[in-house]
Amino acid sequence: MQAVNRSRFLKRAFQCFGSLVAVSAALGAAQGVSAQSAPQGQIVIPDNVKIFGDDNPNMRRATAVVNGDVITGTDVDQRLALIVAANQGKIDAEEMKRLRLQILRNLIDETLQIQEAKAADVSVEDAEVNQSYARVAQQNFGQNTAAMDAYLKRVGSSPESLKRQIRGELSWQRLLQRNVQPFINVSDDEVNDVLARLKAAKGTDEYRLGEIYLAATPETREQVYKNASQIVQQLRQGGSFVAYARQYSQASTASVGGDLGWVRLAQLPAELQTVARDLDTGQLAGPIEVPGGFDILYLIDKRQVLTADPRDAILSLKQISLPFPKGVSEAEASRRAEAFAKAMKAAKGCGDVDGVAKTLGAQVVTNDQVKARDLPGQLQNAVLQLSPGETLPPFGSLEDGVRILMLCGRDDAQSESGPSFEQLQAQLEDDRVNKRAQTYLRDLRRDAVIEYN
Questions:
Q1: Residue 367 CB contacts under 8 Å (≥ 6 apart), including other chains
Q2: To the nearest whole number, what is the mean pLDDT of the chain?
């Protein structure tokens, strides 16, 4: 397993949410030096700073020119439309304004990455972009590209916008493979050390967490906390955690939707350990104050290190369904469900259930490849307690009728052996490439010529 590096929690040195006065105070507190004693090249702002003119002089507009390449308002609108669609439109005006600014910053980074790849003669052919686009259509929509084209246009985005994002990601990955990856080295001793620690931790709990991090200074703490609270509220109303992490999080995990991967509590900052331990799968927590800002945590899943997870068992199930007559009352439906459940309990295992179902006018569907973890959460633990031939209590609705699941067999998951030497080495290399990539992108930002229109 890839160790979680502390750099994932070390964020930007300061973040300008407010006026220049707030920035100067933050720098003064962090540096503790005067102009006279500062080393050459260090930024120094006096404590008694006076602002001449508007304390927020930049006109923040929706378009920009990055080293000569134009980012239009339409570019921003089409990216924003995808996030709005992912959140079922539940985004208020203030949130929309902040999201628009974040998207513009993301587009600036994307433009810099594409430009750098082009300057280094790293090319991405249209055919490759179209192939990735088709794969996205299949994986995320279960439909062909024409159907996804129509969907994107319907929500206010466009195929061109998504293809540009794909081109940016492919260009950057290819550039890193040529200019960064060849210079990354992970020794055998490092890999063996991680493998030994992994085996020593066998049986301990691991948590797959998502995070959204917002940086804050003492001066911006109140406003950042307010922003983080608004994000939590949007998420609890059904917002997409992955979408918000990609657009708002200032951690390096933002590019993967905030996914920290599998971690143990000891690998987390102390402020997050207790919170993570008490979370249930699918639960959200935050804002949590940590050094330098606030974190929002989401527990994606939980397991034990190198231990078979019962939820990975493959189940053979029969679903017996009995429809209700149209217009049936709730009382009558309950009576019919009770009688149905009693009849199913009288069935002598899966071999007998088809005959019993036929006498009741019920339908039987069999599936021998159901993974327990793919069942709804409220059914997972219950079905794992069954023995072959036993059934779960009836469930359903007045419209859909009543259904019963019977367990016919179960193949338990094998004990997890953990990553191989080669897999772990690749994970460690990827982690180091990602860190170098962050530095690379910071350099591109620093040297960029950006005009806001």
A1: 316, 317, 319
A2: 77
Longest dimension (CA), the chain: 94
Full set of structural domains in the chain with CATH: 68-179 (1.10.4030.10), 184-307+417-443 (3.10.50.40), 310-411 (3.10.50.40)
- For residue 52, name the pLDDT band (cuts at 50, 70, 90): low
The pLDDT of residue 141 is above 90: no
User: pTM here?
Assistant: 0.53
Percent of the chain with pLDDT over 70: 82
Please give the pLDDT value at position 18: 27
pLDDT at 61 over 90: no
Long-range Cβ contact pairs of 373-378 (< 8 A, separation 24 or more)? 373/309, 373/311, 373/312, 377/281, 377/282
**Closest by alpha carbon to 288, among 301, 299, 273?**
273
Statement: residue 33 has pLDDT above 60: no
Measured CA to CA, the distance from residue 429 to residue 427 in angstroms comes to: 5
The CA dihedral of 63, 65, 71, 73, to the nearest 10 degrees, is: 20
Task: State the pLDDT confidence band at 10, using cuts at 50, 70 and 90.
Answer: very low
Amino acid at 403: R
Mean pLDDT of 130-138: 86
pLDDT at residue number 46: 60
Phi, psi angle pair for 88, to nearest 5°: 50, 30
> Quick one: tokens of 66?
């990055």
pLDDT at 20: 24
